[in-house]
Fold this sequence. Notes:
By secondary structure, the chain is an alpha/beta fold. It folds into two domains: about 5-225, P-loop containing nucleotide triphosphate hydrolases (Rossmann fold); about 230-365. It has 15 helices and eleven strands. The strands form four sheets. Strands 4-7-10-3-11 form a five-stranded parallel β-sheet. The longest helix is centred in the middle third of the chain and has 18 residues, at about 230-245. Adenosine-5'-triphosphate (ATP) binds near residues 87, 89, 93, 291 and 295. The site of adenosine-5'-triphosphate has 19 residues, from helix 5, strand 10, helix 10 and helix 12.
Amino acid sequence: MPKDKNNELRQPAEILFAEELDALIKAEKHDVPAGWRMSPRSVLTYICGGKCGKLDITPKYIGHQRLVEIAISTLVTDRALLLIGEPGTAKSWLSEHLAAAINGDSTKVVQGTAGTTEEQIRYTWNYAMLIARGPSNESLIKSPIFRAMESGSIARFEEITRCASEVQDALISLLSEKRLSVPELVTEVPAQRGFSIIATANTRDRGVNDMSAALKRRFNIVVLPAPADLETEVSIVTKRVGELAANLQLKATIPDQEAITKVVTIFRELRAGQTLDGKNKVKTPSGVLSTAEAISLLANSIALAGNFGDGTVSDHDIASGLQGAVIKDDEKDLIVWKDYLGNVMKKRGATWRGLYTACSAHVGE
Ligand SMILES: Nc1ncnc2c1ncn2[C@@H]1O[C@H](COP(=O)(O)OP(=O)(O)OP(=O)(O)O)[C@@H](O)[C@H]1O
Ligand SMILES: [Mg+2]
């Protein structure tokens, strides 16, 4: 059992942002849907940021507000919500914050893998008790989805497309009938108002096309795009790196805006296959250079600087991370990276010289 909440490596959103959530609930002026803790408008303020009385609500998801509005509205209808997109586009992040705002509980999660079974979606038994006393409420172990139905709240289903199709199919009847039958107890559990599912899936690994048409129809699909422009992506990365560094108690200063802009520029150019000004083509590496990857690269550089450097992130610290992010396992990625260094970075002049030199030194090692 965990002893100290402050020692948890990562706390759920409803604990981290409890102050903002409480303030929004207290100040509520609009209708609150059954089973929700706040109105859809307040959920939007919580996710996209704004003011609640004197309190600033920090933006959690940075991007198209319309997408968030669509996501929230879906959850008041009888369709479930499916967030899809490239890796690292904040699907899990948005799903967690939506559940935190709507229910104050983002922890009813099924983590989808190839090994997920139907029991993890429905229920299973405490077998010792089952043998001793037979099927009973006490020996029933409810899945997160079961608990969400019973309590009229939101369950999250991560990486739904990784699950075998039989397992996905178990969701079809559950989502259309909104009842879960437990034949062993001769009973059926009706979903209470407020029940819904937020599923996430990334489009790189196993496509959403593999989902059956019947299941897809029960979801409203919202596609989360990569950040539209350099400024947006820089602001996402700056904000999250600051939060992460504080959370992980990393002992070094956050890289300045210029360094973050450089990293994001490199990521965007390699991702798009051309320089930002559109003048030069560049080759794209095999891995995904997502916003999330840029965030962890910078967090790693801070850790390097804090532990083995002088506490300020140097070009050398960033170069180590960059090489690891761009070159996954492929020989080809090394060629892509060398091309980029020689054809793009080298020609950028004095402001890029330090980073270019550090990166070249790493490649040469
Ligand atoms: N538009 C954005 N607004 C705010 N944060 C973002 C945005 N895009 C990415 N992030 C940040 O990226 C990180 C990773 O996001 P997350 O884990 O939710 O990605 P994901 O889409 O679920 O990826 P995967 O497909 O690999 O599971 C989070 O820390 C999140 O804050
Ligand atoms: Mg995810």
